[in-house]
Amino acid sequence: MIWDLVIIGGGPVGSFAGYLAGNHNLKTLIVEEHNKIGEPLHCLGKLSVHAFEEFPLPHEPIRSNLKGGYFFFPNGNFIKLKKANPDSYILDRSLFDIMLAKMAEKNGCTFLMSAKAIGIEKENNKTKLIVEEKGKRKEIETRVIINAEGAKRQFAKKLGLRINPYLVSLQYEVTGLELLDNECVEVYLGLEYSKGFFLWISPYGDMAKIGVAVKPSENPKIYLDKFINTLKKTRNLKPEILRTYGGIIPILGPYEEYLYPNIIIIGDAAGYNKSTTGGGIYFGLYGAQIAIEQVKKYLKDSNINHLKVFPKLTYKKFGKELKFTKIARKFLDQLSDENLNEIYKIINSEEIIRTIENFGDTAYQTSILKIVPKLLKNKDFYRVLKLTPKLLDSLF
Predict the structure, then answer these.
(1) InterPro entries this protein is in (predicted)?
(2) Which residues contact 171 (CB under 8 A, 6 or more apart)?
(3) pTM given for the model
């Protein structure tokens, strides 16, 4: 049998691509290396409200509404930003993945579980995907491959693609933790909390999630356990850890999105994650939508340009956002705790906070540029001038 499309990875982006492929009656196979959808769990599960407005996604996995956050600086000061309406949701990621996989299956997709993609063999306009299923080698013939394997990029490495920048994360699901606001995340900035990113506390139904991401050279458990011990003293709390999980977060993307002749890469595997926050599902869903549209065109007339143009189309849709967060991450990584405290002094004004609350959007972070005119009027703006060299370094 020759498949129209084989998708590597049964996570939310791969399954959504399969669901969309079913809308066009494409013979689609999803190859998933694990024996259960939704496991193992890796991320926080934060997803923009835009995704639910723009895509047919299930609402059942929503566990908490988020309207904003507390942003703590190294000196202990914080800024609270809270919008009138939810900006994003915290999901039960396992349930979310399972429901998207069921949508794909109901739309005609076939799943091959416990099968790992390990290579390809090319022949004319067809490709044989080599998989290892329960220890046995298997060849699957297909006209197009979409790689949605996730952040580890194991299949991509088999094809000779490089290792790209990433962070290591760890997260605890806990009870016994009273949040400052059940509609806000708490974000902790500074080298005491994380080297290379930040530490967070998020509502999760009647529980909470405490997590951190750090540079690969660091151990996230050290930062997380130290923070929990601090919480026990400062808030007189006794959080109980119910579940532990972690993973890697791609940053400074996007990476390769098309490989000649017929492989498209989407989602975490393509580095669609915002380098400032690590979130990648929303742009991953858009990448899946664009990919399926181009695959449909290619299967109709065999014009390879439909696949070649894929990276240009994703850049037009969300590439500028990824580029902005890439620059922001490079800039943030250069800042000392003292620099962060200076930034607090600059933005800690009612006018700037109101502007961020009114116009800020965690999915489209270029919206933060709307505060620039306010900053220029701020009497403390001169403080940011000393950071100009670091900002210029971040542009390259």
Answers:
(1) FAD/NAD-bd_sf, Geranylgeranyl_Rdtase_fam, Geranylgeranyl_reductase, GGR_cat
(2) 43, 44, 209, 210, 211, 212, 244, 245, 246
(3) 0.94
Classify burial at 89, counting beta carbons within 10 Å of its beta carbon; exposed 0-12, middle 13-18, buried 19 or more: buried
Mean pLDDT, the chain, integer: 93
Give pLDDT, residue 42. 81
Residue partners of 213: CB distance under 8 A and separation at least 6: 167, 168, 169, 194, 196, 197, 198, 220, 249, 278
String of DSSP letters for 209-270: EEEEEE-TTS-HHHHHHHHHHHHHHHS----EEEEEEEEEEE-S-----EETTTEEE-GGGG
Region label for 153, one of left (φ > 0), alpha (ψ between -120 and 50) or beta (otherwise): left
Residue position matching structure tokens 């902005």: 324
Domain ranges of the chain: 2-58+92-164+252-326, 62-90+165-250, 333-394
Tell me: domain 2-58+92-164+252-326, CATH 3.50.50.60, correct?
A: yes
Which residues is 148 bridged to in the sheet? none
> How deeply is 160 buried, as exposed, middle or buried, from its count of CB atoms within 10 A (0-12, 13-18, 19+)?
exposed
- pLDDT confidence of 288, banded at 50, 70, 90? very high
Q: Please name the fold of domain 62-90+165-250.
A: D-Amino Acid Oxidase; Chain A, domain 2 (3.30.9)
Tell me how many degrees the CA angle 76-82-85 measures, rounded to the nearest 5.
160
Q: What is the mean pLDDT of residues 234-262?
A: 92
